[in-house]
Specification:
The chain is an alpha/beta fold. It is 33% helix and 15% strand. Strands 1-2-3 form a three-stranded parallel sheet, with helices on one face. Strands 4-5-8 form a three-stranded antiparallel sheet. The protein has a two-stranded antiparallel sheet with strand order 6-7. Bound molecules: glutamic acid and zinc ion. Zinc ion binds next to loops. The site of zinc ion (ZN) has 5 residues, from loops. Belongs to the class-I aminoacyl-tRNA synthetase family. GluQ subfamily.
Length: 304
């Protein structure tokens, strides 16, 4: 049986780098609704590989926030406890060491005719053929970059109905799978974990949409199935600016500690989604009461 035909397995995968804000909570809600509306399993996975950014208190704060909102989970994982899996996957991929600094990469891009596409600099392949960059320090610790496939990768999203095609070679370049400080890249860990955990449905923030072709390419190279993707639009504030922790978006923790009612917060989050069946939700609602409404949205994919 194709794994995508059985009951789904979904997950919420926060990075414990700070307090969960309303935008994260909305993604958490939708991911949970999607798993539960299908009678599926729901996992909580802390993406805590970048130890320099992890805040120890954030794990427990996230647990409490989710419990307060009534979003439960069936199993919990910490990426920091799964390093051997990422190392094994890395070993199966065609990677090469790279000692380039940001400055060297920027200079090489300047020198070549090609201007960087979009916001992200395309790695110009300085270390691709095993040559050591002239003048670079051999003793510098090396990152490992993946020699990306030449083929264009297309992905589609079941929530927005859009398709994105990317030529990794020309739009992204060989990207880092393990940083020079030994930290495995998020793209590698997420792909390894979703496959190992049998995740069939990825509901996450739209900020990761542009990274999806990279992850699908990794899935293919590693022989993993591609899950369904549903990217939740990012929540914007009243000025239309994206809510992020650093902009001082209200942390869920603050609302919880101030004695706000979770039912009100859930109601606001649901209404903000612009789903027709969510517009008329009452001022107070429980997460469980939202399940039948999520089924009505039609994003409840038919179990064909
Ligand atoms: N850890 C990522 C984040 O908090 C989410 C990764 C994912 O859902 O694929 O933005
Ligand atoms: Zn390099």
């Amino acid at each position: 049986m194709n794994a995508l035909e059985g009951p789904p397995v979904g997950r919420f995968a926060p990075s414990p780098t700070g307090a969960m804000h309303l935008g994260n909570a909305r993604t958490a809600l939708l991911a949970w609704l999607h798993s539960r509306a299908h009678g599926g399993r729901h996992l909580l996975r802390f993406e805590d590989l970048d130890t320099g950014r992890v805040r120890g208190w954030a794990y427990d704060a996230t647990h409490r926030d989710l419990e307060w909102l009534g979003l439960d989970w069936d199993a919990e994982y910490l990426q920091s406890e799964r390093l051997p899996l990422y190392a094994e996957a890395l070993g199966r991929l065609d990677t090469y060491p790279c000692t380039c600094t940001r400055k060297e990469i920027a200079a090489a891009i300047q020198d070549s005719a090609g201007a960087p596409h979009g916001e992200e600099a395309v790695y110009p392949g300085l270390c691709r053929d095993g040559s050591v960059l002239a003048g670079s320090d051999l003793n510098r610790p090396a990152a490992r970059r993946w020699r990306v496939p030449e083929r264009t990768v297309c992905v589609s999203d079941e929530l927005t109905g859009t398709t994105l095609c990317q030529s990794l070679a020309s739009e992204v370049g060989d990207f880092v799978l393990r940083r020079n400080d030994g930290v495995f890249a998020y793209h590698l860990a997420v792909v390894v974990d979703d496959a190992a955990m049998g995740v069939t449905d990825i509901v996450r923030g739209a900020d990761l949409w542009m990274a999806t072709p990279r992850q699908v390419a990794l899935q293919r190279a590693l022989g993993f199935p591609t899950p369904r993707y549903l990217h939740v639009p990012l929540m914007t504030d009243f000025r239309g600016e994206r809510l992020a922790k650093r902009d001082g978006a209200p942390p869920v923790m603050a609302l919880r500690e101030a004695g706000q009612s979770p039912g009100r917060v859930l109601s606001e989050l649901a209404r903000s989604l612009n789903e027709p069946s969510f517009i008329a939700v009452p001022d107070e609602i429980t997460a469980a009461e939202l399940i039948p409404l999520w089924r009505e949205t039609g994003h409840f994919h038919s179990m064909k």
